[in-house]
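Suppose you are handed a protein chain with no further information: no name, no annotation, nothing but its sequence. What can you learn? This example shows the usual starting point.
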Amino acid sequence: MEQIKVIVDWCGKNYASYISDPRINGVVLSTGKTFEKLKQETEDGLKFHLEGCIADGDPIPEAIRNGDYELVYEKRISAILHEAQEYTTLAAISRVTGIRHAQLSHYANAISQPRPEQRDRIMAGLHQIGNYCLSLL
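A reasonable first move is to predict its three-dimensional structure. Written in structure tokens, the prediction is:
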């Protein structure tokens, strides 16, 4: 089974995704108000794109042509922070990570992307918040 990577961001008021894979001859862009809606739009958009490529005679790998693929969603930090804000705040994340609130806001709004070390700090901070909440039980 082939894997096709889907990059997911939070853009203003919607999730947004793109697939840029040379095996599919082009780019597929999708948006959705919820992550589940985005996944459905991405799947539908890719199927529509592949149907057009196949009809045009574009070279598409046989496994992908036959639907033997899975979409692997990779959320950028903007999408992760958006989801996390349902349960915590940027202020709390700032306190546990030591990353300035304003900088987290830039990441959450996709104004800038964190370096890998910053992303790791944010993820560790979210885990720390989650583990603390679990310890309250």
